[in-house]
Fold each of these.
Amino acid sequence: MFEELLEDVAQKNGLREVNTYIKLAAGLSAIVLCLLSTGYASPLFIALVLSATVLLLARVELRTYAELFLVPLWFALMSAIVIVLISGGEHVFWSWDPLPFLSLSVSRESINTGFFILCRVIGSMSALLFIALTTPMTDLFVVMRNARVPDFVIDLAMIIYRTIFFLLDQVQQIYRAQVMRLGYSGWRESIHTFAMMCGAAFITSWDAGDDLVRAMDARCYDGKFALLGENRPVELRPLAALVTFIIVASVAVVASQGMTLL
Amino acid sequence: MHIMEGFLPWQWCIVWWLIALPCLAFGVWQLKKVMEKDREALPLLGVTGGFIFILSSLKLPSVTGSCSHPTGTGLSAICFGPWITSVVCAIVLLFQSLFLAHGGLSVLGANIVSMGIVGPLVGYAIYRLLKDTSVNIFLTVFLATALADMFTYFTTSLELALAYPAEVGGFGTSFVMFMAIFAVTQVPLAIVEGIVLALVFKYIVALKPDILIRMKVFSEAQINKARGEA
């Protein structure tokens, strides 16, 4: 029912011990470069480099990675097709006007636009997955605190973070029990059973949250979680890799300016 | 589904961030007041956040190939108002992009606007409209949550159409196109979400009515009446 949480992968990936800021810088700069590029080649290049890093250095399984990539890609492909159909152009290959206000066409320019957007999604998705798979959320809380995000917002984020795992656990147990009792045998039952599960999970997690806050209050909790910021030193090799990546990718962005498929 | 990373051109990413940030700042300010006044609200905020996370991760593939999912923001909007909901949503969307690669960082602003601001605002408006009328409170919750979901997708289509207007007919045509793709799955899904959240609300009313009364979500008389019905 639920896909594997990236968090599980991130907690034991091969780049776990690399300084968080280096990993963040690599991912974020890749996203920015993808958004700034105007040709299709540079996002693909960025995707290639980052995917190789995730698969070879972080040692994430190929299967997990492919599954994660396919869902958004499918959605991107559909949206890209819509863009191809509506954006028009000069060299029209095919066109159809089903309604007076609607005109669909496929042209050289629109295929170029659609393909470029698809590549940009591939590039920045790989950057996002790179951050997601190599950096656990617990490390990002430390980054958030250093970035002066207000304490109570981090506090809330951590409570939500904990509740997600609690809820997932609850939901899985209840769901299994409900399936065994034929709770999802029909359309009407399904809605009712699903609502019952949501209600029960909601209230148990709420109680658990109450207990947590009460237990912490009893231990002098003042609305501020103690965060153990592990300071991983900035090492030379990852830093050098980061700088090389940014330079080469920027060159790729400039070199592939305006490059089109057709 | 949330707009994914890299789909919007950078100009639009910045525009949506600029719209989202003041709303978030206002939400953070309100959140601070609530946290100072009533610490008991913290667990409930955490659970609504977790709930939004799980509901909006249930991606259902649809015939058109796109994905739809419930949003679950309506309930939070009713309990805490739209601005705090936008902060909760921002946290949830950040988690989703980093846990499930669902959504993205550059498009986070756009996703916050659709799921965290417009949706909850609509839900909250409906709740306020119907709150003191004789309309059954479960019907109120149903309408608020279902329409919050619908308007989230409405806004997502708007964001996509603004970034990619059609050549013929411009913005309007592409808006209709994107809406049509979403509507196939989203209309039934919004109705199901409304029913589910109304039933969840029924459990809360039956088991933990005190916090609803204390937070003035509904008056004591209304809750008692609903408990009589439940």
Amino acid sequence: MSKQHVTMTVNGDPVEVLCRADQTLLDCLRDEMGLTGTKEGCSTGDCGACSVTVDGRLICACLMLGVEAEGRKIETIEGIGESEELHPVQRHFLEEAALQCGICTPGFIVAAKNLLEKNPNPTEEEARYWLAGNLCRCTGYDKIIKAVLKAAEEMRG
Amino acid sequence: MTLQNGNGHNGNGHNGNGASNGYKYVGTRPVRPDGVDKVTGRANFGADISLNGMIYGSVVRSPHAHAKIKKINFDKALKLKGVKAVISGKDFPTLKPSDKLPGVAPLSFYDMSRNVIARDKVLYDGHAIAAVAATTQAIADKAAKLIDVEYKILKPVMTAADAMKEKAPVLHDDLFTEGVDPTPKKASNIAKRTELKLGDPEVAMQSADFIVEGDYSTETVHQGYIEPHACAANFAQDGSVSIWASSQGAFMIRAYTARLCGMSTSKIKVIPAEIGGGFGGKTTIYLEPLALMLAKSSGRPVKMTMSRTEVMRATGPTSGGTAHVKIGAKKDGTLVAGTLELKYEAGAFPGSPVALGCMTGFAPYDLKDVACLGWDVVVNRPKAAAYRAPGAPVAAYAVESAMDELAHKLGIDPLTLRRKNSAKEGTKAVYGVEFDRIGNEDCLQAAQKTKHYNTPLGENQGRGVASGFWFNIGGTSSAEVMINEDGTVIVATGSPDIGGSRASMALMAAEVLGVDVSRIKPLVADTESVPYSDLTGGSRVTFATGKAVIDAAEDAIKDMKRRAAKVWKVDFDQVDWENGSAICIENDEIKPMSVADIAQIAGKTGGAISGKANINVTKGAGPGFGTHICDVEVDPETGRVTVLRYTAIQDVGTAIHPSYVEGQLQGGAAQGIGWALNEEYVYSKEGNLLNTGFLDYRVPVASDLPMIDTVLVEVPNAGHPFGVRGVGETPIVPPLGAVANAVSNAIGKRMTSLPMSPAKILQKIDAG
Amino acid sequence: MAELQFAAPETVNQAIKILGGAKGKGRILAGGTDLLVQMRSGRIDPGFIVDIKNIPELTEIKKEKNGFRVGAAVSGARLGEHKSVKKKWPGVVEALELIGSTQIQGRASLGGNLCNGSPAADSVPAMIAAGAICKIAGPKGRRTAKVEDIVTGPGKTSLKKGEFIISFLLPEKPKKSSEAYLRLIPRTEMDIAVVGAGVSLTLDSQGICTKARVALGAVAPKPVLVEEAGLILVGSKLDPDTLEKMASACRAACNPIDDMRGTVEYRTKVAGVLATRATKIAAERVRSGR
């Protein structure tokens, strides 16, 4: 047994993939499925660049094995936003200039969208603590937090 | 001068709504042109490259801080199925000490080559020794572990103080201290002595009523970009090479890699990937020559990606160092003299930014009698790379702490003391330059007027202020402005976009051409599609590359005017350019032609339309001054610090895209706060780095910081058509002092060592 | 070098069988937030990974007559969303929730945090203070053990070969009881505890402490139950003098190391501070009925 057959749903589509037991979900997404929007910054769960959701739960894809994804629903940055229209979190990131280099951005957007699904009206403090596992070295977080709070406001209507 | 309270108080400008500064596009806040790709995961960074037939590289790194390499045995690795190539230092040309580029920050290819791959000696934990390429990353990593290296372990020396001792282990037996007359005959770890002096500080100091003097220390810190270094290289049978890499300069990679691999520049093409942060740390090369040689040896494209651990052990960082500062003042607060002695750890090879520390430390002050002495010292740590205003933060930390102490001693408000002595137009800095119109005083004044500075503090809280200076540079930049058939515009430059510079390029081109910014597409071209440009660094891109874009746009306008003249059958000088259209000066019955109109008839009037500019800006990069205010609360029982409020004030010249200017201030402040409070390299006694990840190398997280308010002081730089001044580096200079002063004021005792960990602070509190 | 194998059994017995067949090279995977990091760094090299999250017993939270039973692999995020457990065992829940980021919370578990054997594990002092009991399965059947008896030293546990923890019983508390956990980290999130303190209290109607347990983390080779500290609190109204005595008992129980996260002196000092503060928070929770 060198590779295991794993069936999962990725961004709504059924996916079958062969992965070694030591490959992380991050490796599977990037190397086996070509979904490189999920980034690797540390591979130890300390930076959040590889944030994805599994059955709606926010996790670091570097801390989950690919073989554990059997039967699970995975959502990555590639699944956020319609073909014609960005998700409000994405749009507010652009409008607020909440990214400089952009490497942490996919992880932040996945994490922020997950926050707003669970808590549509977060305080600044709640947003900061929810996103504490997503490192950004460029912005000082100011504009990121503002973008998330503005997206929340818009989504509440 | 205009003031902008940052943080969106201006609203988010929309395309072409016009800014308050008299420009139509400059100063507005459109969505960045590369934005959608970056919020949807489509943007390709260094590690996202995939090539046909690609294999993967892995690096063997030294587990010892200081050792001789006796033997490298590849036998076991080569037996592993899937291994395609192995290389070591022997596969690279041997360079000589004379292989270098001179300058303020000289560049030694001899050292760079030995840093990229060790030859006879390893000089730090993580130093690359060999590399292997295999069909999968897992096999390559396994093979790397099977490469046997025999060492003769030597005693490491980890700090400048130890390395300067008479009997310290010597890293390089061919290193003789520069800057000392006569040059010593005995090799040592002191690479260079730098001295700068104005007037006679020793004599002037005697006229002081008050003198403050102190020793300050800091640790090695890392740039901490989130994207690890990554590249891919292809070596074709005809000897031509393509390298995909994320870096601060594709031309830099081409030049350095060619030099280290003994190749001609024309054989190497570098295609820039998006760069996931650099802050100076990606202004040099690590993996590219290894990937190239592995590709050459295996005949397959090779991709190499560092792990975070490798990034921490073997790239970056910036120097830790010590400072001894002495400032003398009259009773009324007038500074009479200042001296500063800096000792910086260069890492394994010479070249710490100590000279830059000497040049910048006292720059915010008008001192006629001042001296700075710097020592560049090699130690068994990774070779220091540039980090945002290299050398300046540590020097400023010492000077700004001393200024705070002086203000207390004199009973003068610390901003008033700084204003009283601020460098201004005509002030001569210790490094010999006389300042033009600068915004130093304006920043201090603006700081004093902030609501923040005038808000009272609570119990266990303290406020700190500090100023900072950075030169900013110009340099060589190229740009091409291409008019598409439909009148849309491509702006190509060779400057990697590290924090939104595409947006600035588009705005400046829009302003010159009179074309809506949404119709302009800026791009970062590869090394064969645009002429040479210096790397993205020194806060030079919006200034110098921006100038090239302006020149290129003007060149394109000239071309378009020529086309209009041809169609209208008038002389060229009868055509003017207004609001994005060619107009006929003398005959207003001739309907103006827009860019789109002219583009449509390009074929009939001489073919495609473009403008270009290749420039070297040697003058006019306006220096940047800033002042930061920080409030903290210190838990008196645990020594833990909470940053309560922070404001960054800076003379940014004309803000082209104010949101990204604010972002630079906020990001620099955050990095400086991390440096002040938590970040440091921790080594074992044996010289092994203990905190090789983001768990224990503690960069600030979102919940550690408050909103970072910004005040953009806009003193237009006379050296640039739109008044641009570099903004990226200055913001990391004041925070170390501002935070240290805030903590010191909260506990009523001076903190003299960074990072200010809870344990250090509690010890100070409890010291009674 | 044999290739790593993986299985995700659906019953405890299957898991025991697979572990038995792995000849000592088997490792349990719960949230994986420590295991995967250790594998990546080369610190461990398991031959067989047994994912226990498909076994219902390990992922359930249910009320029993003696308290609540929490599966060893229940994630921090799930436990945090469980209102009744959070109300009664706020110390345990807040301790588990302090581990790592939101992302880590999506995976990290009480079982993993305990079996990793770290002296600085956040949830362990809180569980010790709460008097939590482990249910353990192994080749020789099932047994129970107190949480404080599991970790024996850094990275070491008293679990025998082939054994693993199935669940924890958080024992029912008398009325007017509560608990709290505090830790000291340099940042606000994402760090390993420099010191941790868990306190569980019961007060009577006069506000006199009738029962108390105090446990500390990161101040000794393993998380420690400071019995004396608890005894000092009992019978008092948690007045400043008593709290200071309790704090010195905590400091006396410290046997920490100097490392990059803290010094002996600092850890010892702060252990007393945090134990005092946690006691005050727990008492306030009793009084306010929260």
